[in-house]
Amino acid sequence: MVHRLIVLLLICCSFQSAHAQESFTISGYIRDAATGEELVGASCYVPELKAGGMANGYGFYSLTVPAGSYVIRYGYIGYEQLEVTVDITAAVKKDVELTEKTIVIQEVVVSGKTNKDTNVTSTETGTVQITPKDVATLPILFGEPDVLKSIQLLPGIAATNEGNSGFNVRGGSPGQNLILLDEAPVYNAGHMMGIFSVFNSDAIKDVKVIKGSAPPEYGGRLSSILDIRMKEGNMKKFTMTGGLGSLSRLTLEGPLVKDKGSFMISGRRSYADLFLKLSKDPDTRKTKLYFYDLNMKSNYHVGENDRLYISGYFGRDVFGHGKEVGLNWGNKTATIRWNHLFNDRLFLNSSLIYSTFDYAINAQDESEINSIKLSSSIRDVNLKEDFEYFLSSKSLVKFGFNGIYHTFMPGSISGDNESDHFSFSIDKKHTLEAAPYIGHEYDVSDKLKLNYGLRYSLFSHIGPGTAYTFDSDGDFDSERLYKGWKIIKSYFGPEPRFASTYKLNDKSSMKFSYARNRQHIHLLSNTASSTPFDLWHPSTNIVEPQTADQTALGYFRNFMENRYETSIEAYYKDMKHQVDYKTGANLFFNPYIESALVFGKGWSYGTEYFLRKKTGNFTGWVGYTLARTERKYARINEGRPYPSRYDRTHDFSAVGNYKLNDKWTFSMSWVFNSGDAVTFPSGKYMIDGKTVSFYTERNGYRMPSYHRLDIGVTYYKKKKKGKRKQVFYNFSLYNAYGRKNAYLIYFRENEDNPEITEAVRATLFTFYPSMTYNFTF
Amino acid sequence: MKRDQRAKSNTYPGIFTLLAWVLLTVLVSSCSEEVITLDLKGVEPKIVIEGILTDQGEPCTVKISKSGDFYDPGEYPPVTGAKVTLLDSEGNLETLAENAENEPGLYRGESLLGVEGRTYTLIVETGGETFEAVSTLMNAVEIDSLTYYFEDDPDTYIEEYEDMEEGYVFSCHFTYPDIEDNYYRIKLTHNGELLHDIFMVSDWYESGDNVEYDFSAYIFEENDTMNVELLSIDKAAAEYFSTLNAVMLSSNTGPGFSAIPDNPITNISNGALGYFAAYSVRTKTVVFKKDTTD
Hints:
The complex is a heterodimer.
Chain A: H1 2-18, E1 23-32, E2 43-46, E3 51-54, E4 60-66, E5 68-75, E6 82-88, E7 92-93, E8 96-98, H2 118-121, E9 127-130, H3 132-135, H4 147-151, E10 157-159, E11 167-169, E12 177-181, E13 184-185, E14 190-191, E15 196-197, E16 204-210, E17 224-230, E18 239-244, E19 247-257, E20 261-270, H5 282-285, E21 287-303, E22 306-321, E23 325-341, E24 346-364, E25 371-392, E26 395-416, E27 421-425, E28 429-443, E29 448-462, E30 465-470, E31 476-482, E32 487-503, E33 508-519, E34 521-524, E35 535-538, E36 546-559, E37 564-581, E38 597-613, E39 618-633, E40 642-643, E41 650-659, E42 664-673, E43 677-678, E44 683-687, E45 690-694, E46 701-702, E47 706-716, E48 726-734, E49 744-749, E50 757-764, E51 768-776
Parallel strand pairs in A: 1-7, 1-8, 12-17
Antiparallel strand pairs in A: 1-4, 2-3, 2-5, 5-6, 9-16, 10-11, 12-13, 14-15, 16-17, 18-19, 18-51, 19-20, 20-21, 21-22, 22-23, 23-24, 24-25, 25-26, 26-27, 26-28, 28-29, 29-32, 30-31, 32-33, 33-36, 34-35, 36-37, 37-38, 38-39, 39-40, 39-41, 41-42, 42-47, 43-46, 44-45, 47-48, 48-51, 49-50
Chain B: H1 3-7, H2 12-28, E1 31-36, E2 47-54, E3 59-66, E4 68-69, E5 83-88, E6 93-98, E7 106-113, E8 119-126, E9 129-136, E10 143-151, E11 167-175, E12 183-190, E13 193-200, E14 210-214, E15 225-233, H3 235-253, E16 273-287
Parallel strand pairs in B: 2-16
Antiparallel strand pairs in B: 2-3, 3-7, 5-6, 5-8, 6-7, 8-9, 10-11, 11-14, 12-13, 12-15, 15-16
């Protein structure tokens, strides 16, 4: 299978180059005229040849066409289309700038193809691209625009919990999502237990979600890829944007050297804790509870063909009570990227990436004699080499390599008491991950497009470290120590990827995709909510890599000159070596954690319906998902399959944004979903004089169905003539009709009569209003 | 990893619990609660067996009842007329008798007593079904002492004690013995009422370690009587009690902040609920008195 794929690839490549003589290449960058930011995914199209391409993740495009004079049409959603006539008699370098639509105009009816029909023409299934601008006016809990909460409104993607930025995709668990910020993996994407995401919308340029059928350049997680790119910084002028709502935000950006280099720096901090200081209660005054984050990026055009980017993220949550207790956690990422053009057809991106997540807990008594400190972390050093070779206007080859060195520090404790100092730590674990890949995007004909390739994933758990074995009861059996760089256990395997689009006509297409993904690191969490104590654990001699095979089939159709996009997708995902844990397992600070794990399989399938209007005064979408997700473990539920905790049968969302005029924009979102699977007791009995719940099956019940309406209004203050300052206010109301949704249901004995047991529904957030003030200078 | 260092870190679960609770409180502060009625499935009544044998010279007692539906009032029908047999590893056998009139469902032995080091098998036959459980009576561990002092500025994370500005705090001391696979349960009774029930894992300690179990989060008044029972239990009983504890915790906090609930892991065969535990127990009592020496 693998060999045949490679041979096929080589044949296609050679076939292409044989016919590419007499042709010349036009290449360059597509940018925003106002800020100089590269437009990821902008399109270029030559109507005469019915050929075109898309700008890559760095805004670079390359088209190879027979010599001649052509009209080239450049476009990007929300931007004015640009037509340029170019004589191509030699290689041409053409950078273009597109202007954002500012005035609301009647949609120009464009015949033929533009970027507007990428919904139909691209080979991607289960992929959605959004920009923070698209969702800036949506009503969100606490009023802060949040890309993670916005993507939860898309079909196939669900929030893990009320008001939480954590998400699960097509029945996968949150730990099966690869969240990338400028290519750096982000291991814990939530502030304040997930109430806010760590992504500051002011600092983000572009967000791409891939629900499983990822092209070969991506890999490492089973469920989804969330590829977030930070803004590069305005190349033309200095600007300052900021706001005040639940959080305070400030972003500065501007050119370092005009049109050659720029910077962006953006920070946020929650400030509600400042009010704690005003409290009369001395205990409350001693409480610390806040978070902050900082995004920085800078880029510079070193020469005609080289561009350097440096970006970083630093965020921290802090919680404490006087000097007695302190807890803090957060992510740090840093990315150095170098884009190099070898020639007008061969593009290279090299990235060196660092990413870490850690938490620390400190406690001491009032005498300050007894103290204890706990900490845990995961750290990655990551090298990526991504080549893009634009063979012709119909053929693009991508190949490269990704290598990651992970260091897991599950936990260490140190402290002092009256008599001595003590310390103890669980062994660090070191692993190496590597994945070469090659992929080919190829337009076979006007009708048929292919994107296929192969990623080969290699993984080794290496020393220094200890490998444990356990007996069938899960008791410690043996341990073996390994020295540095000695291989403890290796796993490897191919990840074939295939995606195709067949155009039925100008308006509609059928798509098919298949992808295998392998995941070598596993998120162990004993709660449904994301907490900083969730633990990442590598594959070892005991824990095998998770794998998933996903097949998806879709029908895509656009209506009314591409103003409406619709799609229906069906998928089936088969997952192996899934990880769960035994009843009563302690995941926290347990050196023998592997003995507490159980392994099984899972599958999920479903259909997703999506209708979206992307342009005009009224924009928005309607999404519906009908799905099923099950798990099967020999040691859970007596070996019978059971619904996963992320199993949600019906999930509906409607999102609307109406721009009344230059001053007022109204927005709403309504969500409805049937309840997730949950384990409730069916009976009860008495042990030791206490009532104990009796469970008959895993996840055999459903939470009550959930629905909620959020509304928002945005008011843009009129810009004064000649002034650059722009101010807008956003008001929103979360859960506008006060539906009492169940955040959780728990069981207790009745206070007056302990013989009676009752179920209690806890509800968060009804009628929760927020307001934010935003400005741009 | 050095085990003697690990032994001293036994204060950490307290801190973690504290943090988890504070974070939970923060989130749930904007939370409203309401009792609702769920449509829960009825369940075929299950046999519940609670068998206890100690080394205290008392014969074995076995309580047999049936489970009820969740919304039933707390009536757990006793199972009468069962045949309950106890065997020990020395080949002794006794049938436990029921006083069906006064204490239906309660079966007591007479002559077969708990002896350290022996393994006991309990067999219950009722309704055409047979349930079996095995438990080893572990060697006893003595409580060396209970120490206490008066604290004028106590530090606690337990809500009920937060208002107490001063009071007595105490700890329990014992020496870790040279026994394999030994687990502990400590039961704390305050003026006759069960206050605290904890479990400890054996491999945290090495023989000869002096273990101090610190109860400083509890604050007591003068003349309060504290009774500490130190139970030495076998692995199966430890697994039962600790998973029972986890179930109690998760059904109280819901799915958001704890593991998916499941039934405790029992040592009884054939699908009965409950447990059979043979264990040794040592007890010490202390009454808090004003220190007259200073």
